Amino acid sequence: MSQPAVRHAVVLAVVAVLTGAGSAYGAFGDRPLESGDRGQDVRVLQSWLTRLGFPTTVDGAFGELTARAVYRYERENGLKRDRKVSRAQARRMRRQVEGEGAGARRTGDDEEERVFTFGERALRRGDRGRDVRVLQSWLARLGIPTEVDGAFGARTEANVRSYDEWNGLRVNGEVSRSQARLMRRQVEEGMDLPATPPPGGGDAKVETSGSHVFPVQGTHRYGDGLGAGRGHRGVDVFAECRTPLVAAQGGEVDYAGYNSSAGYDAVINGAESGQDYIYMHMSSAPLVKAGDTVQTGQQIGTVGETGNASGCHLHFELWSGPGWYKGGDFLDPLPALRSWDGQQ
After folding, report:
1. Residues 6 or more apart from 63 whose CB is under 8 A from it?
2. pTM
3. Helix (H, G, I), strand (E, B), or coil: what is residue 76?
4. What are 280's strand-pairing partners?
5. Which pLDDT does position 209 carry in this prediction?
6. Three-class SS state of 34
7. Residue 52, Cα to own-chain centre: how many angstroms?
8. Strands in the chain per DSSP E
9. How far from chain centre, in Å, is Cα 37?
10. pLDDT above 90 coverage of the chain, percent
11. Partners of 313 in the beta sheet?
12. SS3 call for 165
């Protein structure tokens, strides 16, 4: 090849790198996205999910946290719950972010409503919008169950005050820009605030009526309960490894998978109670998947010690409607477990 031809080829290669011509997927929506994908378009997805009230880390890697956030987004928007992002879904998300899907505050009678991302403005009682939804969702993620409705009301203000107290901040029930940055870091690091119940937390009535069975199908003993240690929001039931686990109440599987803390776990929304039943530390992948309908007493896995666990046991949680990290309250499941176990 002649020198001019070589120089021309080099120039074309440099231009391809600079313009992204070497990559078929430069912009969000150019390709469907699913677990395992990486790239700038994944970062955009993660940023937009967070902005729309479904927080996840923004690292460009479509992992378990992102898949969970996509699932919650799909459920709230009435979409197929496959934890994947189609091109059409990306267009829908773009419309929501660029249009009414973000927080807004009217600054004057003759001014247009301005769109805000979480942390762009201070938040206080009376504010409404998607940035308020992000705040409420992140409070729940950090262990302060809060209804996610986009309205900064009395309950949200009380929970912000609890957040202030637990972080040694000035207790005023408002969220400054610097406080929003702190909260973002805590969520991205997976921080769990102390288990002291926030106002109203843990006080909702546990559903013990209707059709229930005890989830551990074998010899067992009770371990730590609600509030035993940092962030412990359930009851541990110890049993031999690989003892069958069954659904305490049938319903729809909201989530089934793995994470570093809970290990293999599953979340089932009860068909009768409307409460979420959470089963953690299974020995292997759950026998059900998100979207499945299970029956009361159906086996969903086996007792194990995956994740952050010592000894084979089931960590069992109950959350009131609308559910786990969706604005429900964590409940003390021990009375219900003893009732189902015949140990009043």
Report:
1. 35
2. 0.46
3. helix
4. 315
5. 44
6. coil
7. 13
8. 103-105, 114-116, 220-222, 235-239, 244-246, 251-259, 263-270, 276-282, 293-294, 299-302, 313-319, 330-331
9. 20
10. 28
11. 238, 304
12. helix
- The DSSP bridge partners found for residue 114 are 105
Confidence band, pLDDT 50/70/90 cuts, at residue 108: very low
Residue of 196, 223, 208, 301 lying closest to 257 (CA atoms) = 301
Number of C-beta neighbours around residue 181 at 10 A: 12
Q: Per the structure block, which two tokens stand in for 331?
A: 């409940």
CB of 215 within 8 A of CB of 314?
A: yes
Pairing outcome for strands 293-294 and 299-302? unpaired
User: Which DSSP state fits 151?
Assistant: B
User: What is the CA angle 63-68-70, rounded to 5?
Assistant: 95
pLDDT of 200 above 70: no
Residues 6+ positions from 213 with CB-CB distance below 8 Å: 246, 247, 248, 296, 297, 340
Residue 148 near residue 133 (C-beta atoms within 8 A): yes
| Domains of the chain with bracketed CATH | 3-98 (1.10.101.10), 103-188 (1.10.101.10), 220-341 (2.70.70.10)
Q: What is 157-221 written as a DSSP string?
A: HHHHHHHHHHTT---SS-B-HHHHHHHHHHHHTT-----PPPTTTT-SPP---SS---SB-SSEE
Extract the tokens encoding 258.
Answer: 């793995």
Place of tokens 């991302």: 117
What does the block give as tokens for 2?
């002649």
